[in-house]
Write a structure and sequence with these properties.
The complex is a heterodimer of chains A (581) and B (274). By secondary structure, chain A is mainly β. Chain A is built from nine helices and 38 strands. The radius of gyration of chain A is 22 Å and the shape is globular. Chain B is mostly helical and 274 residues long. The radius of gyration of chain B is 19 Å and the shape is globular. The termini of chain B are far apart. The chains are: A mainly beta (581), B mainly alpha (274). At the A-B interface, β20, β21, α8 and α9 of A face α8 and α9 of B.
Chain lengths: 581, 274
């Protein structure tokens, strides 16, 4: 027994900081991402869902999601906190309160948002924070393979489950949700994306016909939900009325105004089918223009969506991850940049520039986020990779290929899928970190700026956790520990951050665009209520400025239609901007 | 699929290129089967230029370009890559195999089978094969099967297709017992576009198939058998590799046998008592 304990204790650590690599990274790139789970007292571990015995042959595949991360300053102390979801019945979610000293304390239980994976209610898949009642505190929407739940934040002191009577649907097998104000009425609305059809409780199924009918053209996924905030704690299902009738397998969603009409449009990343782009007609109706716009022509596995202005032209592009496995499935990730000036163009067209920028091939990708990791003034890109890391030197890809070309009646029945027998599939992949050098040039620094890890990355979030002007990276890994990377930034680059507070607009200013002009550069960022894959970044916006010690102008476009201009704002600090009433 | 253009006039001069173009357009317009038109256009142009150059340089004549056109389109459909060069190289390799890998003035490999197999095996970092459905529904499947069967029937190659399908199904059943997966999982690939193109076009190519009906049936049984073994060893592109391995050997043996027969006949004719 003692030998067993010794062997177990000698198990290879999940990550190891290589001092030489760190020094080289700091010297060459000016930053290093160092995992600080232990130092920060973050000991959360994600557990995958457990499914009905009838689905056991491919349980590892179906239950391959649920590790999520969202950033929130739930108590408004000016320091960002971290919320992780767990996905096994009886497991607990974790809210890590930032203690301001490099340490975090899990207060989820104390705050009433830990024990949320109870039998019969489904299991957590993700969480997004939004101040739906404009009381100044961000509330929690927990989406599940189960009943979505809404928790009202009581002045940062605790949460109350207000789901009952709120109008949220009874059951959604959701892997995505965002807060956004689709009709610009100053109240945050909700979009929840269905993945598996909502008629299934995957922990108790009566049929095994739960799978997509095609791996390229499936329309038998879950329905989506657009829930309008009525302002009294109630949400109204306006999905059909607004024209969002798709039942594709939605994995991610993000909102921003792509045509300059002031209303947020929706980009929906679908697995097993094309992506969709819904243009918002003044909050009254959405029109799907995926094919017309270019983004929805080729069916790929849409896994996540994130926004970034990679060339500092004030143009917001859309990064959408997919799956690439050499020799088997070459989808490649997309970076959709608007072809034309948005103003006055109701239906914008997009061009895929991922290959040009060489940010297309990542692996089996899930979450992605843009952020200036070295504050050089260009937005870098982090992509989480890896599907199922089970038995080493095994692969389920051959088995998968048998079924993937089959007729719909064969594919949709999980019973027909070959037993995984503990095999891996696109497992042990390293996450990608691409450093933006400007002018569509990215350098792959994945193995240079952080310890080598091969966990199955899912959600990625970026936040300035330590209020030091650098973006830290938090990655939620499936069935494993998350990795909280502290950005050891060591260069003299400048930065500026903005935290917006809406008054006429929704209090979180979700949908607001900020354009920073400096030294001939012009970068746009947008405040979102959830972005990536099952993730949410910090609320504040972070801009690196490089060596420039001055910002010429900042333009803020509020959802209400108001515009704020700030000349020469103070740099190397967080600027809190309140919308004029 | 040069067999469809064997006759340079009439039905087979126009039907095959039109059929494969229609197949491509219907697939693309309905299901977006291609990642980009540019790739397939590049493959077609590369195949045609290679055909023109090699036929002029090596054979000293102009060749009908229908065969190259069809090879180019097949390459455009059958491989997947995020870059354009694999489409061009595969098309060039396909046509080159016709002119370089020859025995007694005839090519041994089906051109697109050679190009596609070579690239899938040698350039797996950049190239993948067509492995997903076109729509996955019964209607598109039925239409493709009916059209395919009509074409092979007209070309008098129905026995090749049917023998292969029957062999595949039987061996799929055996495989399902061996690997303990469902019969439907083993048979599923046959319902996909990769196999449809394979059984209707590649397998039935006269220039690279043997001369007798029984021989052709035996060869496709062997191809199915080699494919079966490759599948047991987890080769996703087993049918292509099986044809790549079996087809040329069978053709070579057939040509030797035919040559011997001719020699025997001429000897017999020259005997004093003949």
């Amino acid at each position: 027994m003692l030998i067993g304990v010794a062997l177990r204790s000698r198990k290879k650590p999940l990550y190891q900081v290589d001092i030489k690599q760190k020094e080289l990274s700091l010297k060459n790139y000016g930053f290093y991402l160092e995992p600080i789970n232990t130092e920060a007292d973050i000991n959360f571990k994600h557990l995958s869902p457990q499914l009905d015995a009838k689905l056991k042959n491919i349980e590892a595949q179906i239950a391959s999601m649920g590790a999520s991360v969202s950033i929130v300053d739930y108590d408004k102390d000016g320091w960002d906190d971290i919320y992780f979801t767990n996905s096994r019945t009886g497991s607990q979610n974790a809210l890590y309160h930032n203690m301001h000293n490099g340490k975090f304390e899990n207060v989820a239980s104390k705050m009433g948002i830990a024990d949320v994976n109870k039998k019969g209610s489904g299991v957590s898949m993700g969480a997004v924070w939004g101040d739906y009642d404009n009381d100044g505190y961000q509330d929690l929407l927990l989406y599940k393979w189960g009943k979505p739940e809404l928790f009202h934040n009581i002045n940062g002191k605790g949460f109350v489950n207000v789901t009952t009577g709120s109008g949220l649907p009874q059951w959604v097998n959701a892997n995505s949700a965002i807060w956004f104000d689709f009709n610009n009425d100053g109240l945050l609305d909700l979009f929840i994306g269905g993945y598996y059809n909502e008629k299934f409780d995957l922990s108790h199924v009566t049929t095994t016909k739960v799978m997509p009918k095609s791996l390229r053209y499936a329309n038998n996924g879950g329905r989506n939900y657009l829930l309008e905030n009525e302002g009294n704690g109630k949400f109204k299902d306006v999905t059909k009325a607004e024209g969002l009738n798709s039942t594709k397998w939605t994995l991610a969603v993000a909102a921003s105004d792509f045509n300059g009409d002031g209303y947020p449009d929706l980009f929906i990343a679908n697995d097993y089918n094309v992506n969709e782009l819904y243009i918002n007609h003044k909050g009254e109706k959405f029109t799907e223009i995926g094919s017309k716009s270019g983004i929805g022509k080729i069916p790929k596995s849409g896994m996540s969506v994130s926004f970034g202005d990679i060339v500092n032209k004030g143009i917001l592009g859309i990064y959408n991850t997919t799956i690439t496995e050499s020799g088997i499935l070459m989808q490649s990730n997309n970076y959709w940049q608007p072809e034309t000036q948005q103003k006055g163009n109701l239906y914008p067209k997009f061009k895929n520039l991922a290959q040009l920028a060489e940010i297309d091939n990542a692996g089996w990708s899930y979450g992605s986020q843009f952020g200036d990791l070295n504050n050089d003034g260009y937005m870098d890109l982090y992509v989480a990779n890896g599907y199922i890391s089970a038995k080493k030197e095994t692969s389920y890809w051959y088995d998968y290929s048998k079924i993937s070309s089959g007729n719909s009646s064969i594919i949709e029945d999980a019973a027909n899928w070959p037993d995984m027998k503990g095999k891996s599939q696109s497992g042990y992949e390293q996450n990608k970190i691409w450093l933006n050098k400007g002018h569509f040039l990215f350098e792959d620094v994945s193995s240079k700026v952080c310890p080598h890890t091969t966990l199955d990355g899912r959600a990625v979030a970026m936040a300035d956790l330590f209020n030091n002007g650098s973006l830290d990276v938090i990655v939620a890994n499936q069935n494993n520990i998350p990795l909280v990377y502290k950005n050891m930034l060591q260069n003299a680059n400048h930065w500026i951050e903005f935290d917006l507070q809406g008054t006429l607009s929704n209090a979180d200013a979700v949908g607001a665009k900020v354009i920073v002009d400096w030294n001939g550069e012009k970068q746009i960022q947008v405040i979102t209520g959830g972005i990536g894959f099952s993730s949410q970044n910090q609320h504040r916006l972070h801009f690196g400025l490089g060596k420039s010690d001055k910002v010429d102008q900042v333009s803020i476009f509020w959802p209400s239609g108001q515009m704020t201009t700030i000349d020469n704002p103070k740099i190397d600090k967080l600027n809190i901007v309140k919308e004029n009433k | 699929m040069p067999w469809l253009t064997k006759k340079t006039t009439g039905y087979f001069q126009y039907v095959p290129p039109v059929f494969i173009t229609l197949l491509l357009l219907v697939g693309q317009l309905n299901f977006g089967i291609l990642d980009s038109y540019v790739n397939v256009i590049a493959a077609v142009i590369a195949a045609m230029i290679t055909e023109i150059l090699l036929s002029r340089i090596l054979l000293g004549k102009w060749k009908n370009l229908s065969s190259a056109y069809i090879s180019g389109i097949s390459v455009g459909i059958l491989i997947r890559s995020t870059m354009i060069w694999p489409y061009i190289i595969t098309a060039i390799l396909s046509i080159m195999s016709k002119y370089i890998l020859r025995y007694k003035g005839k090519h041994l490999w089906n051109p697109s089978n050679f190009g596609v197999s070579w690239m899938l095996f040698m350039a797996s970092l950049d190239v993948a094969g067509l492995s997903t459905q076109w729509g996955s529904n019964l209607f598109s499947l039925t239409v493709i099967w009916i059209l395919g069967l009509v074409i092979v029937f007209k070309a008098k190659r129905l026995h090749v297709t049917l023998t292969y399908v029957v062999s595949f199904v039987i061996l799929a059943y055996v495989r399902s017992i061996i690997v303990d997966d469902t019969f439907l999982a083993e048979i599923a690939p046959l319902t996909g576009p990769m196999y449809q193109l394979f059984i209707f076009f590649m397998l039935t190519d006269p220039p690279t198939s043997v001369s007798t009906k029984k021989g052709r049936m035996l060869v496709v049984i062997l191809i199915a058998l080699v494919g079966f073994i490759l599948r047991l060893n987890n080769y996703i592109y087993a049918p292509f590799y099986a044809l790549f391995l079996v087809g040329p050997i069978a053709k070579f043996i057939d040509m030797r046998m035919q040559a011997n027969k001719t020699v025997d006949k001429s000897i017999a004719q020259n005997l004093p008592n003949a």
